Amino acid sequence: MSDKSLNTRIPAYKEAFASGEIQKTYQSLVGIVQHLRTDFSKTYISEYSVANLLHGYIDFTYFYLQNDYLKKHKLKLALVFSHHHARFELWLLGQTKDVQTAFWEKLQGTKWVDENKMPEWSIFEVVLLATPDFDDLEKLSTTVHGAFRALSKDIVELLKAYE
């Protein structure tokens, strides 16, 4: 975060918005995540409940997925689009900060957990799709679904192994 005052940062902010490209791009990306959310709610109807689309500030757009196993353990998966990195990620979240901390400690030494620092909003965060092709929505959707199916299965298996 910049040490400059807000008033000092405003000209750069206004300049960034002047062309309208940021707004158009942001709206298009949010639309893609909304499309994925709708598709996920249909595809995984018997496996997961899929929450509504949520927005971080300008940094994240995401939706939660939860099945009976995750709910029982007060956990959720979040399919996250990171605007900063322009990529899709899958996060394991706890219902509360205490739940997140407990699972972060329990899962120390596993491949996705950074033993030195717990993420601010999750137990761990995994890159699901690092370089999405935003111009081919069908391919993007297929790739995200395939990565989600494999990764979510691995995450639940990991959780069950640490019960």
Features:
163 residues, six-stranded antiparallel sheet, 47% helix, 20% strand, alpha+beta
Give your account of this protein's structure:
The chain is an alpha+beta fold. It has one domain (32-161). It contains 5 helices and 6 strands. It has helices spanning 6-18, 21-43, 68-72, 97-106, 137-161; strands at residues 49-50, 54-55, 60-66, 75-82, 87-94, 124-129. Strands 1, 2, 3, 4, 5 and 6 form a 6-stranded antiparallel beta sheet that branches. A hairpin with a 4-residue loop joins strand 4 and strand 5. Helix 2 (21-43) packs across helix 5. The longest helix has 25 residues, at 137-161. The radius of gyration is 17 Å and the shape is globular. The model has no long low-confidence stretch (mean pLDDT 95).
Summarize the structure.
The protein is α+β, with helices and mostly antiparallel strands.
Largest sheet: 6 strands, antiparallel
How would you classify the helix and strand content by structural class? alpha+beta
**Total number of strands:** 6
Cα(first) to Cα(last) distance is 39 Å
Number of helices: 5
Taking all residues together, what is the mean pLDDT?
95
Overall 3D form: globular
Estimate nothing, just give the exact number of structural domains.
Answer: 1
DSSP strand (E) fraction? 15-25%
**Global Rg:** 17 Å
Spans of at least 5 consecutive residues with low confidence: none
N-to-C SSE series? Answer: HHEEEHEEHEH
The portion of residues assigned to helices is 40-55%
